[in-house]
Amino acid sequence: MSDSVVAGVDGSAESTAAAHWAAAEAHRRRVPLRLVHVVPPEDGDLPHREPAGTRLPDSAAALRAEIAHALPELDVSCDLVAGHPWSALTAAGETAGLLVLGSTGPGGVTGRLLGSVALRAAAEARCPVVLVPADAGPATATGEVVVGLRGDRPSDAVLAFAFAEAARRGAVLRALEGRTEPDGRLHTDGPVTPEQLRWSLVESRTVRLQDALAHWRGKFPEVRTAAEVSGRSASRTLLDASRGAALVVLGRRAPAHPLAAPKLGHVVHAVIHRAHGPVAVVPYD
User: Do residues 83 and 163 share a domain?
Assistant: First the structure.
């Protein structure tokens, strides 16, 4: 469990939605919420924690007051931090353990925080990053927690995060694996049609996916689970599931070489841009 939840705010509709989602999440975790508004330094200035002579924007102050009124038992603060937005927000999130940023959702117009800041945070932060579209419901919204997995390559970090989120919500955890097989790979000399072979592969992968959940079901016996392997692509499978999900959880592998630049995989990138609800990107080795 993190010591707090950090949400980046900048006055945009996306960041306001992210702040409200983060507030509900912090309340559920029983930890403080820290809103962070970043002021880029002037040319030649060195970043510092509290910009001298700079007042907290009215939008940030009003947002903090609104959240404090709605959740009076929640410890909520709002900090003004000078620095480059990506590095300041990522550092704050990594210290806290969870960073929440606004995203556009499908068909949206890129907000001030999304662009390179939110995408870079999702690609490089060493803590989970949740991206919340402007039209997302609160973190209290009902619905499944969906986790995208490969049954042959499950990640303990991703599963631990997904199971914990499902447990906090009392939600079903649905593990999804999307795999497509070119028809050329579904050839056999035996009396089996490509369609029969395709369904056989789906069944065997479903069993493997269920096995990947077994260890974590023992740690979270209260969480109901479902495992499903789709014959469609992973991105399409997850995007469809995002329509009714409270949260979609995806993993992002750390670079194999310490000098290699971190990056989002094509599935994570597609889901972040087009999901119909919040998406958590969890780094793992």
Answer: no
Same domain, 153 and 241: yes
pTM, full prediction = 0.86
Same domain for 17 and 119? yes
**206-213: which pairs have CB atoms within 8 A and are 24 or more residues apart?**
206/151, 208/151, 208/152, 209/149, 209/151, 209/175, 209/177, 211/151, 212/149, 212/151, 212/154, 212/159, 212/175, 213/159, 213/173, 213/175
Domain encompassing residue 124: 5-133
Do 115 and 157 belong together in one domain?
no
Q: Give per-residue pLDDT as tens, 179-212.
A: 765 544 545 555 666 566 666 677 888 899 999 9
How far, CA to CA in Å, does 41 sit from each of 35, 50, 118, 126?
19, 11, 19, 24
Give dist(CA 222, CA 240) in Å, integer.
26
Note whether residue 138 is domain-resident.
no
